[in-house]
């Protein structure tokens, strides 16, 4: 066959689709498909990154200065912090370290679309658990999915793409059912946007539970997506397993410097987060007023459950200069970005609600 793989590979890898990055924006339009921060880097960050360029030198592989700074921030030791090239790299390392052939990884679905691929590459079997109708994790169903083969449980809060959160009470209930030797990964990539949500706090949980690791990233709220840097907080021996599974020297010096300078300017960056959160809330209320049944969003994005009309709905957004993230037969994830994009976003949603009303039913406001 012309499209056959010319060398022997694992059949599950041959059948696995590669990660699909959000499409770029149309000319003169807005890219709302990748949950990027729309603000330009702070001048202080850009200047220090430019000074850090030394293309002939390896980075400081252990990221010790950054780990020390983060350890102070989170009340732990440098050994209790692990730095990697974004939270997706952390996820990969921890799944590889804890799960293999014959093992199971339980996760909500729909959730971060990279989860199934990472699990398959590790040789393990994913156990997806359907979300509740409001797009949130079904904690009771996740508990019921646990078996003696479960090695990892993935919890995403705020959940990507539905923007819902897992509360502290829900997470405590899950932990009470998970054996102490099973790794629980708390994916908090969007936590800075979830102020006032009642979401579980990774810092407090990690301090009390040795089998929980909290994952954070500088890509979203901190605006460093292009530099690829994130970190994990957890028990040092658990983090050592991820360090053993990591690709050496994968975090650049520029990324480490940018993270350190960003921490120096946290108040300015959190002001930007507050602007985006307020804009998100305005968009959500406007969508509800249009008749959409939109889960209360706590990330920097909203979820439109367009079902089998998703492809047509994405085309409407595209005609209005917006690239949204389409999950066919399920829905659209739309990032909250530039203020100038809001009118296009709401106009697209209004058009979809009008022309596809028989396929995208309105629901009562909750």
List the helices and strands and how they pair.
Layout: H1 11-14, E1 30-32, H2 43-51, H3 64-74, E2 81-84, H4 87-98, E3 104-109, H5 115-121, E4 125-130, H6 139-145, E5 150-156, H7 168-177, E6 183-187, H8 202-208, E7 212-217, E8 230-233, H9 236-245, H10 253-264, H11 266-290, E9 301-304, H12 310-319, E10 322-327, E11 331-335, H13 342-355
Parallel strand pairs: 1-10, 3-4, 3-5, 5-6, 6-7
Antiparallel strand pairs: 2-8, 7-8, 9-11, 10-11
Helix pairs in contact: 2-10, 4-5, 4-9, 6-7, 11-13, 12-13
- Structural class designation: alpha/beta
Q: What is the fold-level CATH name, i.e. the topology of the largest domain?
A: Aspartate Aminotransferase, domain 2
Report the biggest beta sheet as strand number plus sense, adding barrel if it closes.
7 strands, mixed
- Could you state the CATH homologous superfamily of the largest domain? Type I PLP-dependent aspartate aminotransferase-like (Major domain)
Radius of gyration, whole Å: 21 Å
By CATH reckoning, the class of the largest domain would read Alpha Beta
Helix content: 25-40%
Q: How would you describe the shape? A: globular
Number of strands: 11
Counted by DSSP, the helix tally is 13
Helix-strand topology string: HEHHEHEHEHEHEHEEHHHEHEEH
Total domain modules: 2
Main sheet strand line-up:
2-8-7-6-5-3-4
Spatial gap, N to C terminus = 54 Å
Unreliable runs: 358-366
Strand content: 15-25%
């Amino acid at each position: 066959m012309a499209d056959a793989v010319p060398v022997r590979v694992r059949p599950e890898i041959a059948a696995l689709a590669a990660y699909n990055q959000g499409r770029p924006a149309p000319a003169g339009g807005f890219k709302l498909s990748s949950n990027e921060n729309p603000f330009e880097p702070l001048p202080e960050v850009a200047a220090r990154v430019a000074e850090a360029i030394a293309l002939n030198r390896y980075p400081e592989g252990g990221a010790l200065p950054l780990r020390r700074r983060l350890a102070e921030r989170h009340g732990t030791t440098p050994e209790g912090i692990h730095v990697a090239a974004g939270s997706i790299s952390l996820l990969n390392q921890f799944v590889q370290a804890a799960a293999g052939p014959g093992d199971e990884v339980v996760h909500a679905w729909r959730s971060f679309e990279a989860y199934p691929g990472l699990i398959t590459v590790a040789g393990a079997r994913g156990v997806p658990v359907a979300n509740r109708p409001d797009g949130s994790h079904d904690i009771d169903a996740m508990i019921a999915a646990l078996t003696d083969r479960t090695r990892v449980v993935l919890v995403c809060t705020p959940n990507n793409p539905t923007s819902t959160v897992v509360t502290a009470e829900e997470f405590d209930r899950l932990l009470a059912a998970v054996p102490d030797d099973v790794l629980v990964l708390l994916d908090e990539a969007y936590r800075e946007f979830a102020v006032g949500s009642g979401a579980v706090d990774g810092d407090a949980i990690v301090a009390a539970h040795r089998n929980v690791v909290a994952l954070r990233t500088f890509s979203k709220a901190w605006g460093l997506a292009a530099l690829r840097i994130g970190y994990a907080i957890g028990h040092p021996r658990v983090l050592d397993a991820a360090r053993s599974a990591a690709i050496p020297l994968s975090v650049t010096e520029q990324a480490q410097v940018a993270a350190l300078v960003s921490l120096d300017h946290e108040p300015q960056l959190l002001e930007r987060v507050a602007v985006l959160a307020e804009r998100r809330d305005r968009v959500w209320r406007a969508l509800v007023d249009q008749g959409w049944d939109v889960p209360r969003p706590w990330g920097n994005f909203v979820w439109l459950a367009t079902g089998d009309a998703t492809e047509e709905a994405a085309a409407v957004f595209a005609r209005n200069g917006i690239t949204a993230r389409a999950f066919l037969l399920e829905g659209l994830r739309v990032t909250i970005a530039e203020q100038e994009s809001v009118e296009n976003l709401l106009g697209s949603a209004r058009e979809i609600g009008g022309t596809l009303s028989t396929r995208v039913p309105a629901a009562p406001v909750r």
